[in-house]
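User: Please predict the structure of the protein below. I'd like the answer in structure-token form so I can feed it into my own downstream comparison script.

Assistant: Understood. Taking the following sequence of 70 residues as input:
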Amino acid sequence: ASVSKEVGFDALQLVLDVSPDQLFESMKMKFQQVPQTWLVSAAGEIVYSVDGELDAKALSSLIEEAGSLK
């Protein structure tokens, strides 16, 4: 079970029907592995990201960053 589910954090998750190489290239992503977690502002900017597994420390930081968004 993921840490986020264990603590009740729920967010939109997307599953894309493209190859990873297509996704990484089209989004100009430097970290080219999954999973990735992004916190996106209302303006569409990535304001926080986690490259790899979302562990308890990263989740705590993500929640803190989300709380600071207006």
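That's the full token string. The mean pLDDT is 82.
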